[in-house]
Amino acid sequence: MKNLFSFFAKNQSLIFKVFLFIASTLLVIYFLPKGGQFKYNFQKGKPWQYENLYAPFSFTIKKDEDTLKKEREEIRGNTIPYFEYDAETAARVAEDFREKLEIRYVDSLYNTSRKTVERLGESLLNEVYENGVTDEIYNYEDGRLIYLKNGNEIEERSYSQLFKKENLNKRVRDLVEKNNTEDVQVLLYNLLNDVLQPNVKLNTRLTEAAIEAEIAALNPNRGIIEKGGRIIAKGEVVEGDKFQILNSLKAEFDSQIWSKNNYLWLLVGYSMLVSLVFLMLFLFLKNYRPVIYSNNTKVTFIFFNILLMVFLTTLVVKVHADYVYVVPICILPLILKAFFDPRVGLFVHVLTILLLGFIVPNSFEYMFLQFIAGIVTILTVSELYKRANLFISVGQITLIYILGYFAFFVIQEGNIQAMQWQNFQYFILCGLATLFAHPLIYFYEKIFGLVSDVSLLELSDTNSKLLKELSNKAPGTFHHSLNVANLAEAAANEIGANSMLVRVGALYHDIGKMLNPTMFTENQANSINSHNELDPKESAQIIIDHVIKGIEIARKNNLPDRVIDFIRTHHGTSLVYYFYKKEREQQGQANKEDFIYPGPIPFSKETAILMMADSVEAASKSLKEPSSTIIDEFVEKIINNQMAQGQFLNANITFKEIETIKKVLKKKLNNIYHLRVEYPE
Predict the structure, then answer these.
(1) How far apart are the first and last CA of the chain?
(2) Which 3 state secondary structure label does DSSP give 556?
């Protein structure tokens, strides 16, 4: 049991990675569509690249979406509508007519008797209410058959048999002319117009139910291909019926292959492919990004983002496949570039797109567009902390999506007449969603404890609490840190390192000195050196301790680990030579171990740059009469000495880059001291 616990303790990091690998693989397999993958890739308008294809089994030819849409529209246009008839309205209107006639009729004004007017009005009301009255205009032809529902009885009628209230004037005029009672035309019209009420209206519920029933009964198939029948020949263009038959075969294949008999085999296949993707990711991190690989939080962060994109894409495809381009996939390389570097961002983006190829329809087009968009994201997004850069990059990414989609459509259709322009809205929405990167980065920093260039920009503010405290307590150290930051930033820009990170690291690298500022030369006023009264060992220990104290102050103020790395490594394992030499002069011998910084040595380009800039800037203060030649020599001497001590062995920095850094430091120091090139006399 003790050996088992010991094994788990020693291999805790590896065990966590294995668990993450298995859990991620299972989750992705769960998200993948429950169907096999059709083994032929084809595009509309392109030649068939395989051998002659024969039907492996009998299957039905599905109607294409345009045909089904047209048939549904025909059903909607031809379905007999239902109208509701209210029988009580006619009796109520007739009673109302008699009451109003009693009030308005005056014997002296009309030749026609009141009884005659009453008879004419009632006869017209009986006539129009026999089939029903409506005051709404429906988009039906007069000869259109309708169903008239009166209680539990349904009768067929022609739409033209319904009386429209707008025809009342004409009907009254015809009636009085027929009965030679023109003198009461105005009275009769006014009375009927006042009392006439509609008693027929469209029954939307019954009509829609009838339409839906007919649409549900619509046959989605238009024929059968028998087993063994030739579907398409090699080199034949995939278009028209051939394209629809191939789509039908693909749909039938997808539905048949995910069965109980081969369920296990499909799981095995999916497991192998997904495992290969994640295995490639682990191998890449282990071989090329060991710092990330050794940090389980960072590895978890990468896997979390991959799974998040797979989940969102799966969700959108299930809701509506047309919205798949709304998912902002390019936010993945953007965020990974902000936290790590462009190469990690692009590599993870490519692997994620390979996984999404199993999920999305028309996977070739989707993968092509996403690959191109991801590359554009990596190439265009620089200095993410500048908001304008993000907006410009999002505009370029959106343009790439639109151009790529347009090109694919033209290749497949051969024209732009059937172009669905609303699809471009999805790309615009995707671009807008990509702008969510800034708040998402902030969220990730709080959850995973990472640091991005956005946070580095905030830390570089010299008005921050910690830097203000350094300025007040150790003004000389603060000024030294500013000079080192400028030197290091210029060098980082020259060799393509993270200039913002190295600048922040330089600003905070000596914060440990503010606990005992007068013990450091740059803060000593009036040339009073406090070390004159101390033993060399004590002095060396005070100097060395500023690294340890700096780490403690940084942790207390919640500085990110990436910044603390600069405090920890800016002296590496170098020797406090002045006090070592002083001890040897006084005692005749000295133990080097008492005068060496604890390390570690720099392990990145940025930390190596800081070590060089810090040493060179500090040493330059001791130059009494600096000249270009003297500066060149002492820069070469200091950095070559650091190389000889092996301080840069773990920094992944080349000799060429070190030489470039030397040139930058020499140039900057010459500018600081306002020196000109020495010309021969």
Answers:
(1) 83
(2) helix
